[in-house]
Structure formats: C-alpha cells, structure tokens
Automatic annotation (TrEMBL):
SUPFAM superfamilies: Expressed protein At2g23090/F21P24.15 (SSF118359). One of its GO terms (biological process) is regulation of translation. It comes from Drosophila pseudoobscura pseudoobscura. The keyword Secreted does not apply. It holds the Pfam family SERF-like_N. Keywords: Cytoplasm, Metal-binding, Nucleus, Repressor, Translation regulation, Zinc, Zinc-finger. This is Zinc finger protein 706. Residues 1-40 form the Small EDRK-rich factor-like N-terminal domain. InterPro entries: MBS1/2-like, SERF-like_N, ZNF706/At2g23090_sf. Coiled coil: none annotated. Residues 1-39, 53-77 are annotated as: Disordered. GO terms for molecular function: zinc ion binding.
Length: 77
C-alpha cells in the first residue's frame, strides 16, 4: 500500500484518468456514426446511396445516372 507522496501521486493519476474517461463519454465512434447516419436522409432510387440534402442528391443523380430519368422530387431543386 502506498504512503505519503506516492499515495498523493496515485490519487492524482486516478483522478486524471477518471476525468479523461468522463470527457470522452458521448464521443465514441458509435455515437458519431449514429449522428452521421441521421444526417443522411435522401436515398438514391437507383443505387441506394445516401445523401444529406437534395442538392447533393441531384448532383449525384446527374453525374452517376445520366441516362436515367430524374425523379420528380429533384426536378425543382
């Protein structure tokens, strides 16, 4: 068992470790992936690719599927 100065150092190290763990909570890779997935709301009718907004969806459709007819929801964008 540690005594004196070593005990104080050990407690400080443990407190720092706990603070880092608490700060990191909510920033895990799965949380970030879930947030990114929520942002991808438009799905391409042809290739099922996901886009965040209609403008990007229209650009995707014009570049990747030029021979296909443009969907109705993209014609006015």
């Amino acid at each position: 068992m540690a005594r004196g100065h070593q005990k104080i150092q050990s407690q400080a190290k443990a407190a720092d470790k706990q603070a880092k763990m608490k700060k990191q909570q909510g920033h895990s890779a799965t949380d970030q992936k879930k947030a990114a997935q929520k942002a991808l709301v438009h799905v391409c009718a042809v290739c099922k690719s996901q886009m965040p907004d209609p403008k990007t969806y229209k650009q995707h459709f014009e570049n990747k599927h030029p021979k296909n007819d443009m969907p109705e929801e993209l014609k006015d964008v």
